[in-house]
Specification:
single chain; alpha+beta; six-stranded mixed beta sheet; elongated; zinc
């Protein structure tokens, strides 16, 4: 049986596979996901930070990792959000981070509950269903390595 190679992790990760969770949440069923939604077709676009875990499978072959992939959590994953002019379709794109051991972009596993909450909260703000507020709840637990963040490389990250 021939070995199949896994695809290289992408710098930009489309969030389409998380739409089912968003559609099941309160207020989420009104939105459809459109992976082709372009800026010119949008009412509003913006960037939010999401949280999750990056996993670098390339590093599992390094001697110091004992066959385990290198992973790290991040609460500052630069995520682009797009909402259509008719408020019915949206798109989200996660920007990857590079591994600090091998400099390759890693796979991303988003905290889906927080993703759904933040996306729906953002859309409520953008459509005028809630007023803006400043959250003081989130406290950073570590530095943001802008040289390894693809959102920073593109010049769109909030950090």
């Amino acid at each position: 049986m021939p070995m199949t190679r896994k695809k290289k992790p992408k710098r930009e990760i489309d969030a389409a596979k998380h739409h089912a969770a968003l559609a099941q949440a309160d207020g989420g069923s009104q939105y459809e996901y459109d992976p082709t939604l372009a800026i010119e077709d949008c009412r509003k676009t913006g960037v939010r930070h999401m949280s999750g875990v990056f996993i670098c499978h390339a590093c599992q072959y390094k001697p110091n990792n004992n066959g385990r992939p290198h992973s790290w959590g991040s609460g500052k994953v630069c995520t682009e959000l797009y909402l259509s002019k008719d408020n019915k379709t949206y798109r989200a794109v996660f920007n990857a981070q590079q591994c600090n051991q091998c400099n390759r972009y890693a796979r991303f596993k988003v905290n889906e509950k927080k993703y759904v909450d933040k996306v729906l909260d953002t859309f409520e703000l953008w459509t005028g269903r809630r007023a803006a507020y400043r959250s003081e709840l989130h406290k950073s637990t570590g530095p943001h390595d802008s040289s390894r963040c693809y959102g920073c490389v593109k010049g769109i990250c909030l950090e």
